[in-house]
Design goal:
This protein is mainly beta. The chain has one domain (2-145): Jelly Rolls (Sandwich), CATH 2.60.120. Helix content is 0%, strand content 47%. The protein has strands at residues 2-5, 11-17, 45-50, 57-61, 70-76, 85-86, 90-98, 100-105, 110-114, 118-121, 126-131, 137-145. The chain has a 5-stranded antiparallel beta sheet, with no helix packed on it. A 4-stranded antiparallel beta sheet has the order 6-11-8-9, with no helix packed on it. 17% of the residues are buried.
């Protein structure tokens, strides 16, 4: 992830996502590539987030755009929560970009959130994210299907 100031003075974040481990010069064999699935380094992405909008922004939408990863930018006003939900068969990572809050895990810890902190939820974990500060809480969440042993 790269942080930079854009030419209009607003903060922009570029998220580079490599969705395959293929060599930059190698082309996939047509018979081994499922239609619509990212399989080459050419499918890597650079995404610029609009941190000023205050609106939810889908970042990655899952297959066929990625193998299993979904992500989005969430902004919660003071006192708001995202709503209790379960990670189900996914792992979730929350990267705090602005503000303060808490991730409250049912039957688990309450994790304070602030800039520079990253919270992880394993599969089948019910949790909620609350803005406990006076300014907007903004975070990027990333979820991917957990792979068994």
């Amino acid at each position: 992830m790269s942080h930079c100031m854009n030419t209009t003075g607003g903060l922009a974040i570029a998220l580079a996502v490599s969705v395959a481990l293929a060599s930059c010069t190698a082309e996939p064999e047509p018979e081994t590539q499922a239609q619509g699935e990212p399989e080459t380094a050419a499918d890597a992405k650079l995404i610029t987030l609009d941190l000023e909008s205050g609106e939810y922004q889908r970042v990655l939408g899952g297959p066929p755009e990625t193998h299993t990863m979904h992500s989005g930018l969430v902004t919660l006003a003071a006192g708001e929560s995202v709503g209790e939900h379960s990670t189900e068969e996914y792992e979730e990572l929350v990267v705090v970009l602005a503000g303060r809050g808490e991730m409250r895990v049912v039957d688990g810890p309450v994790m304070p959130l602030e800039v520079g902190r990253v919270a992880y939820c394993p599969p089948a974990t019910t949790h909620n994210v609350f803005n406990t500060g006076s300014q907007p809480l903004q975070y990027l969440y990333l979820v991917a299907r957990a792979v068994g042993d």
